[in-house]
Amino acid sequence: MTSYRTFRRSFDSIQDIFAFTAEVFASEHIDPSLLPSVDVTVEELFTNMVKYTASTAAVRIDMTKLAGGVEVTLTDYDVGPFDVTQAPDVDIDRPIEQREPGGLGLHLIRRLVDCVHYEYSAESRQSRITFRKTQAGAPTSDRGTVAGSADAHD
Amino acid sequence: MLTIDFGPNGVVVIAGRLDAAQSPAAQAFLDQVQGTVTLDCGRLEYISSAGLGVLLKTQKRLMGSAGKLRLSGVNRHLQDIFVYSGFDKIFEIEPAP
């Protein structure tokens, strides 16, 4: 079963998003050990939408239980394309003097979830980012799978 | 929800979830600490990149004046995040027992 909800495009929505993910995990009996990675990934993707797009539309989040895990999709409306799967990794071996926090969110999600898929429709100006987190695919320090696609460009 | 305050012996105790909504409050508190500071993370349940930014900014400022931020009581989720972000190389980290 898929559960979904829409959230106002604001950092103030983060608590409501966490309440939603916890509610779905409980009602669908999804392994609770997967929840922190799902929450971090949803937060990073959602805050990226809040910070870097000019849209005022709400963001929709869908969650579907899978065998041994969960699939989550964030749909962003009235936006241009931005393929999060193409964001560069952060060089984590740099000395602290050269480290900056920017870019860490997208770097992290590649390691926390099994796969991330990006789709953009220029016709409807919608972007959809889908990721999966399962017990079987839980990475240790390896990158997850990433894939991007767009059916057209602005 | 996040709380951050001084505990016994000058340790800073942080509890709850250090996410993008809570990070400004944590940053405002940590901007006031000086020297070598232990951050007790025993009741910190969650951290995202926004929280990592708070820790990194604080560590850079303290190291600039010969101090540092130590992290203690770090749970498994936090440890994973610190390793993936390379923070295990720039912080002294004591795992939760």
Structural features:
heterodimer, A: 154 residues, alpha+beta, Heat Shock Protein 90, six-stranded mixed sheet, 3 helices, B: 97 residues, alpha/beta, Transcription Regulator spoIIAA, five-stranded mixed sheet, 5 strands
In short:
The complex is a heterodimer of chains A (154) and B (97). With 154 residues, chain A is of the alpha+beta class. Chain A has three helices and six strands, in the order E-H-H-E-E-H-E-E-E.
Largest sheet of chain B: 5 strands, mixed
CATH superfamily of chain A: Histidine kinase-like ATPase, C-terminal domain
Radius of gyration of chain A: 15 Å
Number of E-type strands of chain B: 5
| Count of helix runs of chain B | 3
Helix and strand run of chain A: EHHEEHEEE
Kindly identify the CATH topology of chain B. Transcription Regulator spoIIAA
| Biggest interface found | A-B, 29 and 27 residues
Class from secondary-structure proportions of chain B: alpha/beta
The span between the termini of chain B is 24 Å
Largest sheet of chain A: 6 strands, mixed
Under the CATH scheme, which class of chain A? Alpha Beta
Strand arrangement in the largest pleated sheet of chain A: 1-2-3-5-4-6
Spatial extent as radius of gyration of chain B: 12 Å
Tell me which CATH architecture of chain B applies here: 2-Layer Sandwich
Unreliable spans of chain B: none
Please give the domain count of chain B.
1
- Oligomeric state, counting identical vs distinct chains: heterodimer
CATH H level of chain B: which superfamily? Answer: STAS domain
Give a verbal description of the structure:
The complex is a heterodimer of chains A (154) and B (97). Chain A is an alpha+beta fold. Chain A has one domain (2-150): Histidine kinase-like ATPase, C-terminal domain (Heat Shock Protein 90, 2-Layer Sandwich). Chain A contains 3 helices and 6 strands, in the order E-H-H-E-E-H-E-E-E. A 6-stranded mixed β-sheet of chain A has the order 1-2-3-5-4-6, with helices on one face. In chain A, a hairpin with a 2-residue loop joins strand 2 (59-66) and strand 3. The longest helix of chain A is centred in the first third of the chain and has 18 residues, at 35-52. The radius of gyration of chain A is 15 Å and the shape is globular. Chain A starts with a strand and ends with a strand. The relative contact order of chain A is 0.19. The model of chain A has no long low-confidence stretch (mean pLDDT 90). Chain B has 97 residues and is of the alpha/beta class. Chain B has a single domain, classed as Transcription Regulator spoIIAA. Helix content of chain B is 34%, strand content 36%. Chain B has 3 helices and 5 strands. Chain B has a 5-stranded mixed β-sheet with strand order 1-2-3-4-5, covered by helices on one side. Chain B is globular and about 30 Å long. Chain A binds chain B through residues 11-12, 14-15, 18, 36-37, 39-40, 43-44, 47, 90, 92-97, 99-101, 104-105, 107-108, 111-112, 141, and chain B through 1, 17, 19-21, 45-50, 52-53, 56-57, 59-60, 63, 77, 80-81, 83-86, 89-90.
